[in-house]
Specification:
mainly alpha; elongated; about 170 residues; 7 helices
């Protein structure tokens, strides 16, 4: 199934979508593509905000801001995501949930990829409205949706492992 359809399905039923992704037998390159695609879309979501910031404060040019965002999002964020996936796997193992690292990475990266449409909307909102409370509230909504999808995916991982062990 296509990535866009799976993202839409994730909003309707995240556990079922993540279960389907796991059942397809993911490989590391596919999971890495999810992470890099999410990072690329997050980078694109920052363009309107960076443009507005450069127009309001011309002491730092748009190109300089783009270079910093490119480095941070496209080079550092994937490393942080892998570290976060490792910590999540360690935490799950501490609570007696023997999960596969690849599946933990899949859940984390897919959760991030699933909320990128909301991040794109947030980037547009913050470019038009600036740093207002409405944009901040929308940011909390994006974070909440991310945590909801991540939590549902982790629950699906734990459920799938306990069923296969029984």
């Amino acid at each position: 199934m296509s990535v866009v359809r799976n993202i839409i399905r994730t909003y309707k039923s995240p556990r079922k979508t993540i279960s389907g992704l796991i059942a397809q037998g993911p490989r590391e390159p596919e999971v890495l593509v999810f992470a890099m695609l999410a990072c690329g879309l997050i980078f694109v979501a920052q363009w309107p905000v960076l443009s507005r910031a450069a127009a309001l404060d011309p002491s730092v040019t748009f190109e300089q801001r783009m270079g910093g965002a490119l480095f941070g999002i496209m080079f550092m964020l994937p490393l942080l995501l892998y570290a976060l996936a490792g910590l999540l796997q360690l935490a799950l193992r501490l609570f007696s949930a023997k999960v596969i690292g690849l599946h933990v990475r899949l859940v984390l990266f897919w959760s991030l990829l699933s909320v990128t449409p909301l991040m794109l909307a947030q980037g547009g909102l913050s470019a038009f409205l600036g740093a207002t409370s409405a944009v901040m509230v929308f940011g909390f909504v994006v974070a909440g949706v991310f945590l909801y999808i991540l939590g549902a995916g982790v629950l699906e991982l734990v459920r799938a492992r306990t069923e296969s062990a029984a």
